[in-house]
Amino acid sequence: MANTTIERQENGTIKLTITLSKANIVKAQEEVIIELVKTADIAGFRKGKAPRKVVEEKLNADQVREETLKKLIPPAYMEAVEEHKLKPIMNPKLHVEKIEEGTDWVFHAFTCELPEIDLGDYKKAVGKITAKSKIVVPGKEEESKKPSMDEIVKAILESVKLTVPSVLIEQEADRLIAQLLDDIKKLGLSLDQYLASTKRTPEDLRGEYAKRAENDIKLEFVMQKIAETEKISVDPTEIEEAILKAQSPEEKKQLESNKYLLAGILRQQKTLDFLMNL
Q1: Which CATH number does the domain housing residue 53 bear?
Q2: Per the domain annotation, does 254 fall within a domain?
Q3: Mean pLDDT across the stretch 49-65?
Q4: pTM of the model
Q5: In this structure, is residue 33 part of a structural domain?
Q6: Which of 69, 35, 76 minimizes the C-alpha distance to 55?
Q7: Which pLDDT tens digit goes with each residue over 83-99?
Q8: Which of 48, 81, 114, 158 has its C-alpha lying 20 to 30 A from 126's C-alpha?
């Protein structure tokens, strides 16, 4: 069993420091080498039949180290999660310290749990927005323009209180930026060209996407909390009805294989409808 310590940071990030013992490292390395010997393709020998000594002479130390870490890190992380009774909501962000042969190895796992969410008087905040659409002006048939979803979202986010863990913001910002880079590449542009055309620096881009990630995550958490509080749910018939409305056989097949995700989308839509009618 690995030795672990935990640090709960103010920004909501949980830092686990996990030390892998020399004994466990040696054992795992031996298992890795045995597996590599079984699959080694060495000239003059049938695949997997070369003598261990011959294979070891050709083994890459970095490869052995990497495979050893792959074998040790997942179970050590899960042990730490159980030991500290954590309920992570994301895959950990891992950072391996400098490792040397013959010593313990140390790595850090950054993760987080669902933050506490104070909805405040969100109904009152949203009600002030939706009330404008319910006022009928005498002599006019049309009611006032309905509020936009952006107005509703803005009112909710200003009413609630929660701290989104920074490690989660970083992960989502990385995903959004990677998606942007793919889009830029498809246009035949480099990142430098894109930044120059939009008059932004890499720091501007990172800050912009970090803020977007924070708002997106905050809204997702809040919508889930409202749905739980108001007991908004989706029953199996609603899921089946949504699948039947698919525009093509391919779309129908995709929906059928992702019912859990579809249920989440339907629940979110029902929550938005609930808010629009406050």
Answers
A1: 3.30.70.1050
A2: no
A3: 79
A4: 0.80
A5: yes
A6: 35
A7: 999 999 999 999 998 78
A8: 114
